[in-house]
């Protein structure tokens, strides 16, 4: 009873977006059961995600379309009713230390939003370098002052107010294995390429190469990925390949868009320019001239009055 009373006094909504997260969602929900309400916005999962969410007492809502991570999280945010919101992903966990700090913070908040570090695990190893730690993300904020930016991937919370940092951290389990990492890199690179294309970004082969090489150098050397051992090397190499895929897709996407625009422009010019005939029109004109040439002289049309007269 005391735990329930404490939970109700926090004024905290937890929001989670899901799609086929049955394998990870239970542990996530168990770590946030101190909140006043838990809202799960699901993309019509085909596994047991919805059943698991309801078993943990979450409010489950479902939508069929996928507008991207930012817009989807804004949908979940719109369903929250408490003054404070904690946004968490299914592959993240609130530690007991973080829970206690959140409870203390919301009792006497100093800031309007708080960043929280994430300690991530990759293939059984906690990664403390490679740019993975401390990996601060803004996730705890006043509901009326925060909104997610409208992007497909790598969304962030935009807050109108002061931002602080908590000392405790999430546990983060982003990839079950290397296959999962490669799959995510492929999917995210496609979304990122589309975002960059919409912003007018362009890249050539040289830029593609330099982005990839620089990504590896930044993660493995500058961010000391080598201190994470072979895990750090793999993370740097896969990040470089992700950069390579992202900019390769951007390059080919721009080329495809350019071809489509050129084709549409050519068709528009053909339709609007006087005296310019399409291939079908040219064929018809050629056939008509042939027929006219084969007519007897007495059958020529007098264009002045529309009557057929002998010459």
Break the fold down into its secondary structure elements and pairings:
Layout: H1 2-8, E1 12-18, H2 22-31, E2 37-42, H3 49-55, E3 59-62, H4 69-79, E4 84-87, E5 92-94, H5 96-107, E6 113-122, E7 125-127, E8 137-142, E9 146-148, E10 157-159, E11 163-175, H6 178-198, H7 205-222, H8 229-272, H9 279-294
Parallel strand pairs: 1-2, 1-4, 2-3, 6-11
Antiparallel strand pairs: 4-8, 5-11, 6-7, 6-8, 9-10
Helix pairs in contact: 2-3, 6-8, 7-8
Q: Which class do the helix and strand fractions yield?
A: alpha/beta
Average pLDDT works out at 87
What's the total number of strands? 11
Ranges with pLDDT <50 over ≥5 residues?
Answer: 1-7, 288-311
Helix content estimate: 40-55%
Q: Tell me the span between the first and last alpha carbons.
A: 112 Å
For the sheet with most strands, the description reads:
9 strands, mixed
Question: How would you describe this structure to a colleague?
Answer:
With 311 residues, the protein is α/β, with parallel strands linked by helices. It has nine helices and eleven strands. The strands form two sheets. Strands 1, 2, 3, 4, 5, 6, 7, 8 and 11 form a nine-stranded mixed β-sheet that branches. Helix 2 links the parallel strand 1 and strand 2. Helix 6 runs parallel beside helix 8 and helix 7 runs antiparallel to helix 8. The radius of gyration is 30 Å and the shape is globular. The termini are far apart. The N terminus and C terminus are likely disordered.
Structure, briefly:
The chain is an alpha/beta fold and 311 residues long. The chain is built from nine helices and eleven strands. The longest helix has 44 residues, at 229-272.
